[in-house]
Write a structure and sequence with these properties.
mainly alpha; 4 helices
Length: about 160
């Protein structure tokens, strides 16, 4: 009897390695990073706007919020926090009154700046400039309350945009 040897595979034949797509990995990493950055930034701005609206709507809480921030920053005791809050509260009406008195002067200067720069710009530039100034005006400088310096604000007068 003759014995047959099993067929042997051809010597060392293999497929070339699949091309590595490092560029695809890099692009996907960049997309994920940029997406996370965009979402994180958007949520941060939403939170900042929410907090700003709370400050404008409830100025009577400002001394308490300020004292709480100082408690965390300076590691104040409960007694120190109460004392600091009382000190801030005693000065708060004067701060509000000063702001009410100086805001018209500030607004006048900002309006002049807006008009002078706007005069240099053309068409769409001027519109974008005006939109920019109004957004900054609303975020950084909501008009002060028109009520007496009791800490109560006219929330309806404040911009919400």
């Amino acid at each position: 009897m003759t014995q047959q040897n099993p067929p042997q595979a051809s010597p060392a034949f293999s497929l070339p390695p699949a091309p590595r797509r490092r560029w695809l990995t890099f692009v996907l990493m960049v997309v994920v990073f940029v997406s996370g950055l965009a979402v994180g930034s958007g949520l941060t701005f939403m939170y900042i706007d929410y907090r700003r609206q709370q400050y404008v709507a409830h100025p009577e809480d400002a001394p308490k919020r300020f004292a709480e921030r100082l408690r965390k920053t300076l590691r104040l005791t409960d007694e120190q926090t109460r004392q600091v809050q009382a000190i801030i509260a005693s000065h708060w009406p004067a701060f509000q009154e000063t702001r009410r008195k100086t805001y018209p002067l500030f607004k006048e200067q900002l309006d002049a700046l807006q008009a002078e720069i706007g005069a240099v710009l053309h068409g769409d530039q001027a519109q974008r400039w005006n939109d920019y100034v109004e957004r900054i005006r609303g975020l950084w400088n909501p008009p002060p309350a028109t009520a007496p310096a009791t800490g109560q604000a006219d929330a309806a007068a404040a911009p919400h945009g």
